[in-house]
Amino acid sequence: MREIGMSIPQFFICPISLELFSDPVTLCTGQTYDRPCIEKWIAAGNLTCPVTMQKLHDLSMVPNHTLRHLIDQWLRMSRHHHRHHNHGQFDDSDQDYCNFCKVASSDVSLLSLKKTLESKDSVFEQKIQALEQIRCLSEDLPTKNEGLIQMGFFPLMLGLAFGARLSQNMMGLVEKALDCALKLMPFSCLGDSYVLMEGSKFENFRVLFKDGTFTVKKSLFKLIEALSMSSSFETKELANKIGNETKVLQGLITSLDDYQQNPEVSEAGIKAILGLLTSIEGTKCRENFVKQGLVHSLVTYILEVERKEKNLAPKATRALEIVLELESGKKAFLENEVPNGVRALVKMVFRVSGDDEGSESAVNSLMILCCESLEVREEAICGGILTQLLLLLQSQCSGRTKARARMLLKLLRSMWAKDPKHVGKLGRLV
């Protein structure tokens, strides 16, 4: 190899032994080492990553099959190249070697980007530039650039976003890192999100809900939505922790109140709220949401957006239905009701657009409230609930929704029939 001017690619060399990898494995920090070397390091009582000096919260070692494959390929090409070089020949093996070098060079560029982002010596501008390059590369997923996933860029992006010292100057880096993380997330293992459970990173996560830019908050909400949809143990544990953090809940609820100013952030917020409400076990998270004023904000949000052609009023109605199942949720609605809140639910029962999403939630919500309050029943009747229910029964909605609509009609008739002064009014409305 020396005779023909060849050298071992830098990323094929173990950082500990400085020799060619024989069995490359990757640690939780994203760094790769030769298995015998890193096992010896850990056996000596070292619980940090030799390159980054980060504490190893997980001692598992993941075989780096991609790197192993590249090394095997490189060795085969090198032998062919060396043999034909000695005989003064040039054939397909030389072309294969050239093609391999192109593939390897792309991995080298990813490695250099990773080192730039991980290095404490890299200046702010270098990291911003590297993040921009990663954002562009991530747009080729899943057809190209699988190396971004295989080389651990998803947890690296999360580490950058939540590991930086939070300041106004650093917010630009946080925005770009989160943007990259969201682009990589559909192709990554969401279990890698567990890195957020680390004390300092989770604290930054909480702070960003209060002090982050609107762009950062929208990204945080999308991250929460994705975590709440995952079924892995790690993500469920993380989602539960997030759902019981007051600052996080306050940030989500505030996004609904800012609908007029930032509708996109509000839409991301309502998706994250619904994700947490439906995925987290137990009632603690839901009770905390109610304590922070979610009921009032949901009703206000529905009133604001139900007239729009494309909106998330149905998801907000579903979220409201979930919290109304709690005694505290019903109490919050009945005692601190937003003006026209019942009318907003009545309108959601049947929508002229023909979109019956949210109809069942609206019917269920009214059923819960009508069982609790005569005033709600009166307001619902005056708001046109009977007409809405009859229209819904004639629509193409699901059989389940129609069954719930009939139950609500029956409930209203039986309750009003008990009061003679309302019988005639009910008959006229029907």
From TrEMBL:
Residues 7-81 form the U-box domain. This is U-box domain-containing protein. It catalyses: S-ubiquitinyl-[E2 ubiquitin-conjugating enzyme]-L-cysteine + [acceptor protein]-L-lysine = [E2 ubiquitin-conjugating enzyme]-L-cysteine + N(6)-ubiquitinyl-[acceptor protein]-L-lysine. Keywords: Transferase, Ubl conjugation pathway. The keyword Transferase applies. The keyword Transmembrane helix does not apply. GO terms for biological process: protein ubiquitination. Its EC number is 2.3.2.27. Functions as an E3 ubiquitin ligase. It comes from the Eukaryota. GO terms for molecular function: ubiquitin protein ligase activity. Pathway: Protein modification; protein ubiquitination. InterPro entries: ARM-like, ARM-type_fold, ARM_PUB, PUB22/23/24-like, RING-Ubox_PUB, Ubox_domain, Znf_RING/FYVE/PHD.
